[in-house]
Amino acid sequence: MLLTYVDESFTERLYWIGALLVPDGVAMPLSEALDRVMQHATKTYDVPPETELHGYDIFHARSVWKAVPPRARIAVYRAAMEAIGGHDVTIIIRGVKRPALAKRYAASARPAHEVVLSHLLERVDGYAASRDEYALVIADEVQEQAAHRADLTRYRVSGTGGYRSRKLTRIVDTLHFAPSHASRLVQAVDLVTFLYQRLDRPGTDPREAAANESLWSLVATRCYHCWCWDPLAKVA
């Protein structure tokens, strides 16, 4: 079974959703490795032990990370990414260009989250099938949970729609939603997805861009599929 953790990260320009596919036998070792990252941060930087590993907060020195120096915060982020990249996990990330989505479909445009989630689930289902596995999806809490569950049911029966519509046969049960503070693995996909969206930010300081690329290199080999859809681009 592939435990598939899902979270989103977005700007006004791009909307991303990432999935971290964790074989059931890897879930506990990875959770424990991330616990150790947090334990070290508590001991070294006096961060409360119950603190969540949240990409936005660490990156922007928010909440309990406010008093932690930049290099120390980068070190914590690096340790977490090393833990993730050091385990047998798979990363899938999908995105959409939001202005292009609105321009192409105007008033009939589906919400970006709905669009990207359908594309992500297509890829998760395809990956699971290629490995003769099944996937259980556990997402960070969002609004419209019942609607997303209903969408999954429809995708099983009628397919995901679009030019590469797929009937989902490898995602079991329903979509499960969990608060990120209660799951190190939801936190893991948050760290991965947030960092990925930071890689494509116009005007980023070169030093910051280099630091982001260095962090991403720790998990890059785990990436099975990362792609952003431009609704205004012509399909070849």
Describe this structure in words.
The protein is of the alpha/beta class. It has one domain: 2-Layer Sandwich (Nucleotidyltransferase, domain 5), CATH 3.30.420. The protein has eight helices and six strands, in the order E-E-H-H-H-E-H-H-E-H-E-H-H-E. The chain has helices at residues 24-45, 55-60, 70-85, 98-105, 112-130, 145-158, 184-198, 206-216; strands spanning 2-10, 14-23, 90-97, 135-140, 176-178, 223-229. A six-stranded mixed beta sheet has the order 5-4-1-2-3-6. Helix 7 (184-198) crosses helix 8. It starts with a strand and ends in a 7-residue tail after the last strand. The mean pLDDT is 96. InterPro entries: DUF3800. It comes from Micromonospora carbonacea. This is DUF3800 domain-containing protein.
Summarize the structure.
The chain has 236 residues and is α/β, with parallel strands linked by helices.
Main attributes?
Nucleotidyltransferase, domain 5; 236 residues
Q: Topology of this protein?
A:
Layout: E1 2-10, E2 14-23, H1 24-45, H2 55-60, H3 70-85, E3 90-97, H4 98-105, H5 112-130, E4 135-140, H6 145-158, E5 176-178, H7 184-198, H8 206-216, E6 223-229
Parallel strand pairs: 1-4, 3-6, 4-5
Antiparallel strand pairs: 1-2, 2-3
User: What's the domain count?
Assistant: 1
Order of helical and strand elements: EEHHHEHHEHEHHE
Shape: globular
Mean pLDDT score = 96
Question: What percent strand?
Answer: 15-25%
Strand order of the biggest β-sheet: 5-4-1-2-3-6
Provide the gyration radius in Å.
18 Å
Task: List low-confidence stretches.
Answer: none
| CATH architecture classification name | 2-Layer Sandwich
Number of strands: 6
Helix content: 40-55%
| CATH domain fold name | Nucleotidyltransferase, domain 5
Count of helical regions = 8
What's the CATH class, please?
Alpha Beta
* Helix/strand structural class: alpha/beta
Main sheet, how many strands, which sense, barrel? 6 strands, mixed
Distance between the termini: 35 Å
